[in-house]
Every structure is written in C-alpha cells, then in structure tokens.
Write a structure and sequence with these properties.
Order of helices and strands: HHEEHEEEEHH
Helix content: 25-40%
Distance between the termini: 46 Å
Strand order of the largest sheet: 2-1-6-5-4-3
Largest sheet: 6 strands, mixed
Strand content: 35-45%
Shape: globular
CATH architecture: Roll
Length: about 150
C-alpha cells in the first residue's frame, strides 16, 4: 500500500495505464471523495465513497485509451498529506480512434495510505473532444441553459 500522497498518485497512474480501474478505486478510502469542479453536462461534480468512484472509473476505458503519461510534476504543499500534481495523458479516443492529449491538475490528500480527497481540474471541453462526445456535451449544456 502506498504510504505518501506521491506514491499513491503514481500507483494510480500505473493502474490507469493497465486499465485496472477496480484497483484504482481501491486506492480511495471507503468514504473518500473525488471532485471535478469544472464538470458540466452529465459529468458528475462530486463522487462520494469508493463504490461511486469505482463505478465512475470503470467507464473511463470505454471512452479513452490512455497509453502514456509523458509529463508529471508533483508539487508538495505545507501539508504532508496533500500534493498538487500537473500531468498529461496521451492515447486514443475509443469512439473515434483519434489521438488525444489532455492536461490535468489535481489536488490529492492521502491519509493512512488511502486517498481521502481528490480534486481534479480537467477541462470538460477538452475531455469531451478527446472522448468523441463533444456533441453530447454541447447538447447537455444547451438543455441546462434552456431551463
């Protein structure tokens, strides 16, 4: 089991590359959370608990085939249990087969070797474009705006 936030994050990346999303979810504390402040459309803004995280993570390989994480920069904070990570993922979109590159910034808190809080500042437009779901995202945003 990872003991530091950086070890937990690097383990998460390794597991994502081999598409073991069940093991990725197991890195979270039972009551851990994942937040996506920029999420829009049908994407969740907050997941609570390992089961919700497992369900969410399980769908990711159907959208994007992550092949490489070519850039990772870890910033340590004044809190030993929290890091800020900048990273890039590259691969192919499952729906279209097109290559993609996505940049992320995440704030990760780990206690007792498990992720208790993960806040991911990904771009919903870039992600939908990479996943081949941009038309659906735009339709969802239009529906929200019409309410």
């Amino acid at each position: 089991m990872p003991s530091t936030p950086e070890e937990a994050f690097r383990r998460l990346l390794d597991l994502m590359l081999v598409k073991d999303t069940d093991a990725v979810a197991s890195l979270w504390a039972e009551d851990g959370t994942a937040e996506f402040p920029f999420a829009t459309g049908t994407s969740p803004r907050r997941l609570t608990g390992r089961d919700e995280i497992r369900s969410y993570m399980g769908r990711l390989p159907e959208l994007m085939d992550v092949r490489e994480i070519p850039a990772v920069t870890v910033h340590h904070t004044q809190r030993p249990d929290t890091i800020v990570v900048e990273f890039t993922g590259t691969g192919h979109t499952v729906r279209t087969g097109e290559p993609y590159r996505l940049d992320y910034i995440a704030v990760i808190t780990v206690q007792d070797g498990l992720i208790t809080h993960y806040r991911d500042y990904w771009s919903p437009l870039a992600t939908a474009s990479a996943a081949g779901t941009l038309p659906e995202l735009l339709d969802s945003v239009r529906s929200e705006a019409a309410r």
